Amino acid sequence: MAVHFIPTLPVRRTRRRTVTALATAVAGSTLTACALGGAAVSEDQLAQKPARSVPVAVWARGLSDKSVFDQITPLVEQQYPHLAITTEAVTGIYDKIVVALAGGDAPELAVINMPSGVPLIGQNAFLGLQRYLSRDRAVDQELKSFAPPALQAYRFKGDLYAIPVTNETIVLWYNEDVLRRANLVPPHEIENDPQKWNWNTLLDYARKLNRGRDQEREMFGLFIGAGIQASWGNLVYSNGGRILTDDGSKMVLSQAAAMDAVQWSVDTIWKHDLGPQPATLKASPDRALFAAGRLALVMGGEYFRRYLFGPQTPQGLPFKFNLAQIPFAPRTNKRNNVFHTLGLPILRGAKTPDAAWQYLKVFATKEAQQFITDGWGSRGGNQKTYESWLRSNAGGGPPANYAAITKSDAHGLPYPASAFLGSNETFEPLNRLMPQIFENTLTVRAGLQQIDQETNARLEPAARATGAKP
Question: Is residue 200 very low, low, confident or very high in pLDDT (cuts 50, 70, 90)?
Fold first, then answer.
């Protein structure tokens, strides 16, 4: 699922102000006193409650999310009859979480993504789950079936703050018909061999598949753009570089491994003339160019399949597509992809946190997570749900190497997010300057150094204020 931050509420309040309000509220005695809903109620005590007498409110991001959660509700209420689950589709969910916490009117659970959710972990918005896991071996064991990067994404200072909702990896999608006409071995046949499937292979394939030298050409060989998730971020990770340090306390894009990967990406457009320029993409996004048969090779998440088959493209494509795990970096002989995951935390203002934990216990099971894999658009967090999804060709597609998606969990690294600073503040310099780098109006070295400098001027003091050591 592509990552989108929803920046505003209907009320006149900026992201900085809402996060500040949350920090102030959490620090105050009123919210702290009611954070656990008053007197603690054990699970045994909850079980003695009358049927449907303990409300648990769940916030979803929209109607499509809600429809899947509604399918999970009967499983929860069957196992815990005293729970009364209500799921609400909430627009502007991240800012509304902040406002609800500050006002003492938070739901028990709410869907978060990494860019907006991880900073809220740092603001003490969610309850740590380790205290529940330490006495609930069944759930702790179930989580061993979740992709490690999904769990890593929501860990902070040794505690887990959310149960993963979805897993989403990045793979390479390609036009198999044009590869075969060019007598090129399809990447899915060599995807596990770093000597045969690496950045050099990708560049060689792109050159042989490119048709023309202008922006109206018949076919572009390869697209790598200015976005983190489906483009250069995967190459930075594969090359041994990082965007943020593992603890999220510092931006490190100007280090050599990261800089070399970004330079390689930019060179595919301006040195090798293999990809669409940013101005071209404004008129025709990469997915449109690929579906029209004008782009041979493109990185994308499993969400990319929505543009290739299904309700959005009922006519299908006039060519055979396929996919493979992303190529290895020659420098490291490794590959890593930018892994994104949604999460479901217990909010600190929850009135019935132990009841929320009962919901999460069921939510983590294969039975509940299967609804997500089958109906969400991205796979559920529990990897035991993937067998039927693969048998159905990723939800009804033509035959292809969809196992590349599930196998890529093993080399995923979490989407960069910091618990010390909000997403808008952390990534404002990157979002402003990286397009200039890919437009070739700012050099890679100067641009990345400026991104690091501007970001760390904000990020490092925020990290130090929490006791971290950038």
Answer: very high
Burial 308-332 (b: 16+ CB within 10 A, else e): bbeeeeeeebeebbbbbbbbbbebe
Sequence-distant (6+) residues with CB within 8 A of 181 are: none
Q: How far apart are CA 84 and CA 81, in angstroms?
A: 8
Provide DSSP, 206-220. HHHH-B-SSTT-SBE
Q: What's residue 290's pLDDT? A: 97
Q: Helix, strand, or coil here: 407?
A: helix
What does the radius of gyration of the chain's CA atoms come to, in whole angstroms?
23
DSSP β-bridge partners for residue 468: none
In sequence order, the 6+-apart residues with CB closer than 8 A to the CB of 105 are 349
Q: Distance (Å, rounded) from C-alpha 334 to C-alpha 156?
A: 26
Mean per-residue pLDDT for 130-134? 96
Which sequence spans correspond to the domains of the chain? 15-168+340-381, 170-339+418-465
Q: What homologous superfamily is domain 170-339+418-465 in, according to CATH?
A: Periplasmic binding protein-like II (3.40.190.10)
Strands 170-175 and 321-324: antiparallel
Instruction: Annotate 379-399 with b (16+ C-beta within 10 A) or e (fewer).
Output: bbbbbebbeebeeeebbeeee
The pLDDT value given to residue 6: 31
Q: CA 351 to CA 38: how far, in whole Å?
A: 8
- How far apart CA 15 and CA 216 sit, in angstroms, is 41
| 406/410 Cα distance (integer angstroms) | 8
Fold category of 15-168+340-381 in CATH: D-Maltodextrin-Binding Protein; domain 2 (3.40.190)
pLDDT in tens, 246-281: 999 999 999 999 999 999 999 999 999 999 999 999
Instruction: Give the pLDDT confidence score for residue 50 in this predicted structure.
Output: 84
Check: CB of residue 326 under 8 Å from CB of residue 234. Answer: yes
Q: What is the CB neighbour count within 10 angstroms for residue 218?
A: 9
* Residue 61 φ then ψ, to 5°: -85, -15
Instruction: Calculate the CA dihedral of residues 71, 77, 78, 79 and round it to 10 degrees.
Output: 120
Q: Rounded CA gap, 365 and 139, in Å? A: 8
Please count the CA atoms within 13 angstroms of the CA of 244 that sit on its side-chain side: 28
Assess whether the region 15-168+340-381 and the region 170-339+418-465 belong to the same CATH fold.
yes
Report the alpha-carbon distance of residue 388 to residue 379 in Å, rounded. 11
Q: Residue 55 class from Cβ within 10 Å (0-12 exposed, 13-18 middle, 19+ buried)?
A: middle
- Encoded amino acid at 51, one letter: A
* Predicted confidence band of residue 469 (pLDDT cuts 50, 70, 90): low
Q: Which one, of 159, 299, 298, lies nearest residue 219 by Cα?
A: 298
